[in-house]
Structure formats: C-alpha cells, structure tokens
Amino acid sequence: MNWRKVRIFLITVFCLCLIPLTRFNQIDEPLIRFFRGSHQVDPLTLHLAGEFVENNLGTDWNADGSVTVRMIAQQYLFIPHCILVPTGVPVHLRITSADAVHSFAIDGTNYAVKTLPGTVSEAQLQFPNPGEYKTACREFCGAGHYAMRSEVKVVPREQFPALQAGERGSCAAQ
Ligand code: CUA
C-alpha cells in the first residue's frame, strides 16, 4: 500500500466535500429540501402569501403576554429594519431568508440566529432593560454583507403600544 497516494486521495476527497459548503444556494439548500420532502416556507413567495407577508412582519402580542417578532433577512437588509420589543417579556423570534444564508446577530448580547431560505429559524430572546441595540449580519452573504445592519429598540413594557387586531408593533409606530 502506498500511503502517500492514499493520503493524497483522502485530502482530495475532503476538499471536494468542502465545495458544497460554499455553494449553499445551489447545492445545500436543494439537497436539504430534497431530504426534508417539503420545505416550510417558499423563499420566492414570502411577500405574496403566508406568515411572512409584509403586514405580518414586526412585533405581535401573544395571549400569554409574550410577543412574537417576524422578520425577513435578504441581501442586504433585514425587514423590518428596526424592530420594537417590550422589556421583560419573552420574545419569540421567527425569521427566514429570502435568498442566501444570513445571520441575525444582536450586538452586546449572545443572540445570533442563522437564517436559511426555505426554513423558519426560531429563537427565544428577552431584554430586561430598555435600550437600543445595533444588529448585524454575521454570515458572509455577498457584496453588501458589511452594510447589512438593523436595529432592535427595547422600550419599557408599559410604553409598548397596545395593538389593534392585525396591527404589528414597529419602531415607526412608537
Ligand atoms: Cu447577510 Cu451577510
């Protein structure tokens, strides 16, 4: 047995295996869909139907006093650009991507949520104190990656607007 040849062969196989990791949209994502059988959301029709239509994005009160925040990450912005949440209540984040892999990371916290097209990523957040947090995409997603920024505004619970049915909390409404 020629160990040198075996080693070269193994390294070559290893390098070939790495290629799919750099081609998420073209290779990984279709593969994931294929193995999952069906995908949870269609990244191409997010704005047309379902949970992530525009007027459903933002912050919504739940019956138990927690809130749900729905967002979309896309090259190169987060929608909504600024989200408004109350202090001291559980914040259920639901975020998906319209295109590439992004990561929604909140500066000054340990929160970072990877977003994938076709999949809803979930995270549980909570903010004890009011404040403004800068957020940034932490997954290289293309030419505009470094400009992919947004904001989380945390206001005292009693200052958070009471929402009408169908209305979503946003920084603009505050
Ligand atoms: Cu989105 Cu980097």
Low-pLDDT stretches: none
Ligands present: dinuclear copper ion
Number of strands: 10
Helix fraction by DSSP (H/I, runs of at least 4) = 10-25%
What is the straight-line distance between the termini?
72 Å
β-sheet strand percentage? 25-35%
What is the mean pLDDT? 87
* Strand-pairing-aware structural class: alpha+beta
Shape: elongated
Radius of gyration equals 20 Å
How would a crystallographer describe the biggest sheet?
A: 5 strands, mixed
What does this structure look like?
It is built from 2 helices and 10 strands, in the order H-H-E-E-E-E-E-E-E-E-E-E. The strands form 2 sheets. Strands 1, 2, 3, 5 and 8 form a 5-stranded mixed beta sheet that branches. The chain has helices at 3-18, 24-36; strands spanning 58-61, 67-74, 77-79, 82-86, 91-97, 102-106, 112-115, 121-125, 131-137, 149-155. Helix content is 17%, strand content 32%. Strand 2 and strand 3 (77-79) form a beta hairpin. The N and C termini lie far apart (72 Å). It has 174 residues and is of the alpha+beta class. The mean pLDDT is 87. The site of dinuclear copper ion has 8 residues, from loops.
